[in-house]
Amino acid sequence: MNKSKSKPKATARSTARKTAKPVSRKRSASASSRPAAGPDTKHARVIAMLRKPAGATIAAIMAVTDWQQHSVRGFLAGVVRKKLSLNLVSEQTDKGRMYRIKDGRASPAAADRTQQVA
């Protein structure tokens, strides 16, 4: 008694297609008009530490952010130097290597590298 069950036929689709284009959404605020980091974010805290004349060590940044050492180094290279194009300098002192942001933008060579990536 193997009676084959027939599947119900699909309903006929209308042949008329919608020709209206979807409405594109515009962003309310452009990315450049937003602040780089909020007032109490880890990024803002690290940048504030780096802007001090004394600067900060990787160990100090690790303590504030709970990041690992490689994450701090990646933030310094990727965000501070490349994305924000800030002039990050490092100096060897008796306390260890100190990183700080010097006034002004990064060197023209660093700015050229940023434009090439974009």
Commentary on this structure:
This protein has a two-stranded antiparallel sheet. The protein is of the alpha+beta class and 118 residues long. 36% of the residues lie in helices and 15% in strands. It contains 4 helices and 2 strands. Strand 1 (86-93) and strand 2 (96-105) form a beta hairpin.
Q: How are the elements arranged and paired?
A:
Layout: H1 42-51, H2 58-65, H3 69-83, E1 86-93, E2 96-105, H4 108-117
Antiparallel strand pairs: 1-2
Which parts are unreliable, with pLDDT below 50 for 5 consecutive residues or more? none
Tally of DSSP helical segments: 4
Average predicted confidence as pLDDT: 79
| Distance separating the two termini | 69 Å
Provide the succession of SSEs: HHHEEH
Strand ordering within the main sheet: 1-2
* Main sheet record: 2 strands, antiparallel
Which structural class should the secondary elements be placed in? alpha+beta
Anisotropy-based shape: elongated
Radius of gyration: 27 Å
What percentage of amino acids are in beta strands? 15-25%
Q: Level of helix content?
A: 25-40%
Number of strands: 2
Spell out the key features of this protein.
single chain, 118 residues, alpha+beta, two-stranded antiparallel sheet, 2 strands, elongated
Short account of what is shown:
Helices cover about 35% and strands about 15% of the residues.
